[in-house]
Task: structure prediction
Amino acid sequence: MKSLAVAQNVLRRIAHDPRTLVLIVVLPLFFVLLYGNSFSGSYKGLAIVIVNEDNGLASVRTAEVGRVTLDVDLAQSFVDELDPRMFDVVVSGDADAAIARVGQSSVWAALVFPKSFSNAVVNEAVRASGERRIELYGDTITLLPSDPVDGPRTVLVLDDSNPLVANAIRGALDAAFAHVLASQQSSLTVEGLLDVQALHEGSIRMLDFTAPGIIGFAMTLITVMLTAMSVVRERTSGTLTRILIAPISAWQVTVGYTFAFSVIGILQAAELFLASILLFGIRFVGSPGIVALIIVLFTIGLQGIATLISTLAKNEAQAMQLVLFLLIPSLMVSGVFWPLETMPATIRPLSYISPLTYANTGLREVMLAGGGFGEIRFELAILGMFAVVMLLLSVLSMRRQAYTA
Amino acid sequence: MPDSERVVLAEGLRKSFGGRTALDGLDLSITQGQLYGLAGPNGAGKTTLIRTLCGILRPDKGVATLLGWRMPSSRVRSQLGYMPQDFAVYDDLSVLQNLEFFGRLYELRRGQVRERADELLQLVQLADRKHQRVGTLSGGMRRRVSLAISLLHKPRLVFLDEPTAGVDPKLRRALWDDFNRLAEQDVTLVVTTHLVDEAQRCHVVGFLNAGRLLTQGTPHEILAETGTSNLDDAFIVLQERGQGREESRT
Result:
């Protein structure tokens, strides 16, 4: 009976706390909706460049009329076979520029069809499978095997920094090739026609791919929770009021807080990186200085989020709930486990407003691909703006807290 | 009275929380070097008044002026001491570390803080606890640490919200003696207490009830006005008179 009294008391207190009540009801539903939507998305809008130099013609020996030229346009057939929802196909005429774009991470793959692609496929098909009869202008003719066709093969340059995406692209391209080869009734395999050049030569594991995001998330969770709890404790214990009555501005208090927690954030990041590298051999090929810059900007911004959370929370328990309410979704939508391209359009705006998206992308570029300032200038600019805006909002929030303490 | 002597001036202060009126058009005037006792039951509005005067709360109506500056103003902060009702100390730091931190906010040098800390810890009888973590001290001791912090920078005007709550009678008497000594040094002290009779030790007493000042004067004047022998009885008489007036008005 006494246990029942304790239970009733706990439930009654929760029922008297509308914010906690709302979080209890809304939080699980929110997570399920987000989880279901972000996981159920298939790959969409993967950017690839296709350089189609194929003239579409195949010169074949026949039993009846000697050599004939067939207009088969197999490279175009291949392009037509690609799923338009899965790929954002950019057509280019410059093979070098297309390949360079893969290196710059602006597209996932570049596919270069050589001038004689159709010719090579048709002749190799006949050579591999023997004579074949086809209809041509109402007559039936027999295609005969000829000498092997020498010439450049189709080149696929693939960004394999994300093993999941790389595998998906390979699968879809192989299927399109298989369809083209099937049209030639040939037992040819894709490997015989395709020269695959993986950017990282398959050295990036799923663990390497997810590590930057997981490290970023761990930092977010610890920093935001620590800061939010500290500010709430400072407010509820009355010390914040005491501080703000002293001759110190809200700005100075905020900078002090930010400095302290940035130091903690940097130390935490160093610990996370060292442990990941030493224990799991996580790939880290870029500059530690640039990584530190990303971490500092990110941490400053996180202080702001934490201070805003502390303004909304009446006590430490509410602060904790709000932190989880904000941060767990960020893990799902920030491209940590699966790329943004897999997310439905309804979820993507959340990805773009999540700072973890930019920290994750920047860290990944530096750690996995050795990217420099040039490659991550966009991410640095966004994180820089995030830091400045959040710092200003924290000052306002500190002022407000002084009057609501 | 010249304005230079009036260190606290409140005119028509009004403050509500939700539908509850905490200050109801309150006027108040306190002069330099006064030990002013703000007495009243729990919920009378004492803490709200102090927080409004200090600029922590913004009044819905009315004006508060401290040391000649309209509040909230950052110009008076260095001359203002404030001891909140809750302890408002860092439990995880030592007594001295607490004093050192707040000393830095008031731009005191390390040597000055150490010197002041020794004086103040003698005053609040915590000299032997200087290096002890505040979280391990009793409630009364923590309150004394809080008091020491509020006096650290030698403020001209000090607001003490229930400084003697939870303090044993001997130390309470010692603290009131110290408040009087500070007032003799021209420091103005505004001390709240819900133990109305305790206000007897003040130069001037203001009785606060339901966000209104029932009366203000020296303890002797208040006793004469109410024809009572102690401030507890005087408060009850004034409270009843106030209620009677309220009823006749409605």
Notes: Chain B has seven helices and ten strands. The domain at 3-88+157-249 of chain B is CATH 3.40.50.300 (Rossmann fold). The longest helix of chain B spans residues 231-249.
